[in-house]
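Bug #2210: token dump truncated for Very-long-chain (3R)-3-hydroxyacyl-CoA dehydratase?
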Amino acid sequence: MAASGSGGSRADNGYGSQPPRRRKGPGALATAYLVIYNVVMTAGWLVIAVGLVRAYLAKGSYHSLYYSIEKPLKFFQTGALLEEYLLIAKYLPGIVPSSVVLTAFQVMSRVFLTWAVTHSVKEVQTEDSVLLFVVAWTITEIIRYSFYTFSLLNHLPYLIKWARYTLFIVLYPMGVSGELLTIYAALPFVRQSGLYSISLPNKYNFSFDYYTFLILVMISYIPIFPQLYFHMLHQRRKVLSHTEEHKKSE
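Reproduced locally. Full output below:
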């Protein structure tokens, strides 16, 4: 998702008289590892999806479905931290254009919401907003990890590429809405309990108000989410239009 630079002469392109080096993709061993990782993550999010459907069919209601997928959700969403370090930072930029900063925010915000909000504030686990972001995450991640897997194998079906660069139009706002509503629902309980807050006086002469911190987290969505969303819209036009042009040229 990184933007490409404009053209220019060889002398003034920032690389002196030498052309820029192309980013190397992962080697055979790294590719095998990445394929396995992405297959496992795809399967994990499919397990979460099946768990949601089975729980819904068993209960006949969409309320409080979080408990049916709590453990796999925590495991596979936390597993995205490994992706952040090994995949995005080192390998995936050579496979698919990606904004490391924006993707890092997305990964970290989801891990934070999973553990520091939903896990820590038990009262919000029955909120419908939790199901909202869980469903959005699940569909998004199944598509995303499938996309990475087939990209690594150099055999990417158009349907998966289309889904990757189209369904986010609905899924991203849906997920962000669920995340923000869940944090908002947690605020009264955090304030009442003093969760994770540190008051003065103490020997470190340091104070921390988790309630205020959560408000700041919510505010941080204002500048960052539009960047991520419009960046993906730009990538959609770029990737899908290129695909259509390639099909016409064949």
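Output looks complete on our side. Residues 41 and 79 are 8 Å apart (CA to CA). Marking as cannot-reproduce; reopen if the truncation happens again.
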